[in-house]
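writing this on my phone so excuse typos. first protein, seq and then structure
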Amino acid sequence: MFINNFSKRERYLALITISIISIGASYVLIVAPLASRWKNLNNQAQSKIDLLENDSKILTNQKMIESEYAKLSKYAKPAQSEEQAIADTLAYIENVSRNDACLITNIKPIDIKREPSYKEILIDVSAEATIEQFSKFLYDIENPRDNLINVKRFTISAKSGQTGALKGTFIISKVLLN
């Protein structure tokens, strides 16, 4: 064969060249595709693991939410109409304001937000009182927590012409569980 015509050094260089070419070809044709396939499978497996971890966190939160819902649902009055719930909430707010010497100048329901598992009644309240009376009023409205009433927003400003007297407007929400 023609390789016998080469000198020993040329045969050695030819053998090294053929070895390098065969190693490169086997890397390009065998190792690189297998490595990329392996990396792709690892990425897919990691994405599935991440999805499972995320779903597990959501499932854990779902159980906590359901347990909180079960705790709070015992405070909901079943089969109460929206009008009756609004009337009861308005009466509750007026009763608290009377007990705290907070003068309500205007009170009206403004909206009912309907969600799949609950309804939220929003009530706009305008009142006049001192800072101590307002703080007691706000505290008494939200406590005890089992009545599911929250003060969403409040604004207090000085009443013109009188020192110590304040005007306040409040957005109060009452949650009704279905």
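second protein below, same order as before
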Amino acid sequence: MKRKEVVSLAAERACNALGFKPGKSRIHRTVQKRMAIAMAMNPYCDQYEIGEVLHRHRSCIYHYLKNHDNYMEHWDGYKEMYHIAQLEGQITKLVLARDEIKKQFEEATS
């Protein structure tokens, strides 16, 4: 699986976990979900990759990063959404690792 596919899959899983559909909506809860997903992906992806899957410019992702700590402390519901998106990302990594190990095992035993 190519990196772009993995990034898309991780974003899709996080979006599904939060009930979010990428787009240009500026509805309060939608913006929170988009920011939470972006910040959960941040340790693993660059700002261009995140922006691409969330339909945002790299500079928006940078803005989210710059304000993340403030949002965590003061924006009601954001922290919970961020943690859900983070867990979804970790689950995606584990599932992909499991699938890769299964593939290698099947190739070795066939």
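The CA atoms of residues 92 and 98 lie 10 Å apart. thats all i got for now
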